[in-house]
Amino acid sequence: MIEYMGILASDRNSRVAVVTDSAAALPPGLIAEHDLHVARMEITINGKTFIDGASGELDDFYLQLARSSEAPTTSATTPSEYLEQFRAASEHSDSIFCVSVSAKLSASYDSALVAAKEIVNERPSTTVRVFDSETAAGSEALIVLAAARAAAAGEPVEEVERITRVVAGKVRLMAVLDTLYYIHRNGRVPRIAMWTTKALNIKPVMEYSVGKIGAIARPRSTRRALERIQKEMLGDLAGKTAHVNVMHASASERAEELFRWALENLDCDELFITQFHPFMGAHTGPGLVGASWWAE
After folding, report:
1. Is the CATH number of domain 2-41+76-168 3.30.200.20?
2. Cβ-contact 288, 174 below 8 angstroms
3. Angle of helix 222-237 versus helix 252-265 axis, rounded to 10
4. Fold (CATH) for 172-295
5. Which of 39, 69, 188, 254 has the fewest Cβ atoms surrounding its Cβ within 10 A?
6. N- to C-terminal Cα separation, the chain
7. According to the model, what pLDDT value does residue 13 have?
8. Nearest to 70 by CA among 104, 52, 43
9. pTM, 2 dp
10. C-beta of residue 263 within 8 angstroms of C-beta of residue 271
11. C-alpha distances in angstroms, 177 versus 73, 189, 223, 264, 272?
């Protein structure tokens, strides 16, 4: 967490404005509902570069990925893109709280720091805090929404940061991969592991949470993989107020099944479905389905 703070008084709204990047993959409805400012990312596939956002340029990304013979490349959010969002946020707020995708996954966090310095130079009455979510995709989305609710409740930026940090320490992300082909193509697993997984019809269950990264189970069907994810969710969420983001990569039917299961078996204060963002999906491929969650 790094803060940049101006020194001049201002008569702008004291409500904290929340900024994030598009790796959180928040749908337009939630972005509008929570008055979020989203810095966009770029992805190049089949020689063409797309800018993420409401334009829908990446809606068919997984179809393109399945047809592509080359691995796509992803680009971190640029300082200029963050600066644009900070400028918009500072039009109505003295304080800005920015939640970035994990600094271990992307240079977006560093870009946000550069932009934070610049906006404070331009508008010295502005305070900016940049928070490393240490995660991405559905988990980042849940963290951002927790920050947005705290801001909407009128909490000062210090309390927004405290609440966000608590949620970031609780959130978990688990997903089942349909194939290891795309991870292999990006140099993450050896060919023998890909072949073995395919031959045995193994569907790896992966976790990406703070302090927990890697495969946690290797069942031989998607159904059993989803049952393992459900077991983990029940262990964390049963009897508690749950916040759940179901994710998928061109696997909407399975995501809807997991959504219905969560609706029937958990006490969800927050439950929604998002597409797994291409920033990470470029490495995991289509067919992925999973969830991020945390409990109050």
Report:
1. no
2. no
3. 30
4. Hypothetical Protein Tm841; Chain: A;domain 3 (3.30.1180)
5. 69
6. 23
7. 61
8. 43
9. 0.89
10. yes
11. 20, 13, 12, 24, 20
d(CA 183, CA 202): 14
Rounded to whole angstroms, how far apart are CA atoms 207 and 213?
5
Indicate if 172-295 has the same CATH topology as 2-41+76-168. no
Rounded CA separation 140/276 (Å): 11
The two three-digit tokens of residue 243, written as one number: 């916040």
> Residue 5 in 3-state DSSP?
strand
Q: Is 27 helix (H, G, I), strand (E, B) or coil?
A: coil
Quick: pLDDT tens for 177-212: 988 777 766 555 445 444 345 534 678 898 988 777
DSSP symbols for 206-219: EEEETTEEEEEE--
Q: Where are the domains of the chain?
A: 2-41+76-168, 172-295
| All residues at 6 or more sequence positions from 224 whose CB lies less than 8 Å from its CB, including other chains | 203
- Residues 38 and 57 sit within 8 Å (Cβ to Cβ): no
pLDDT, tens digit, for every residue of 83-132?
Answer: 999 999 999 999 999 999 999 989 999 999 999 999 999 999 999 999 99
